[in-house]
Specification:
With about 230 residues, this protein is mainly α. The protein contains 9 helices and no strands. The chain is globular.
Length: about 230
């Protein structure tokens, strides 16, 4: 008897639910760490924020990697599809689930802290180019960061699923390291859902397009690099 016949969610519905909950967890922990750092005057620290993003990605991969692949990121979903390792017919559903999870997380962050907590510059843990960084410079940096992330994911993932003993460690460490060095420059988003959600909730929509187009471009460019460097 299939899940549907038994009255249970179908595998695809389970995948969408996993992506929603996983992305919710990522955005809640990551942007929550940023807002906590701002509210407490730096108690979390830049290194702590980068660590929070890396560890939550690692944890969620181990939790739902076998269910949905733990993409948690529209750019990753599109990258897998471009690589021929994820069906295009499921891309829209994944992206909607990821955006919904991110929006719910940002709404919770907004509710839990005063409106001012997000700070005028970032808006509830959002992303903007850092001081002295041009929009063009931030765009290139986000493209390169996402290229590196997607390249690592394609190498450690099985099919479109981030599975295996070291996949979570590899991807989580990559996110944390990239956030560590590039966070002050661009916010090290690499993820349209992670950036759009706090921007929409806070109303701070400056250069929102940068954090959508650049990660998608980076994920797309990672595919031929993976083809060249794969075993």
């Amino acid at each position: 008897m299939s899940d549907e016949d038994a009255g249970l969610p179908t595998p695809y519905v389970k995948q969408l639910a996993a992506e929603l909950v996983g992305t919710f967890t990522l955005v809640l922990v990551g942007t929550g760490a940023i807002v906590s750092d701002q509210v407490t005057g730096g108690a979390v620290s830049h290194a702590g924020i980068a660590l929070a993003f890396g560890l939550v990605v690692m944890a969620v991969i181990y939790a739902i990697g076998g269910v949905s692949g733990a993409h948690l990121n529209p750019a990753v979903t599109v990258g897998f599809a471009l690589a021929g390792r994820f069906p295009w017919r499921r891309v829209l559903g994944y992206v909607v689930a990821e955006l919904a999870g991110a929006l719910l997380a940002s709404a919770l962050v907004w509710w839990a802290w005063p409106w001012e907590a997000g700070g005028a510059g970032s808006g509830m843990g959002g992303t903007l180019p850092g001081e002295g960084v041009t929009v063009a410079g931030a765009f290139v940096i986000e493209v390169v960061l996402t290229l590196i992330l997607m390249w690592v994911i394609l190498h450690v993932a099985t099919g479109s699923k981030e599975q295996g003993l070291m996949a979570g460690v590899a991807v989580g460490a990559t996110v944390g390291l990239l956030a560590m060095f590039a966070g002050p420059m661009t916010g090290a988003s690499m993820n349209p859902a992670r950036s759009l959600a706090p921007a929409v909730v806070s109303g701070n929509l400056q250069v929102w397009w940068l954090y959508v187009v650049a990660p998608l471009a980076g994920a797309g460019l990672a595919v031929p690099v993976w083809w060249v460097t794969r075993p």
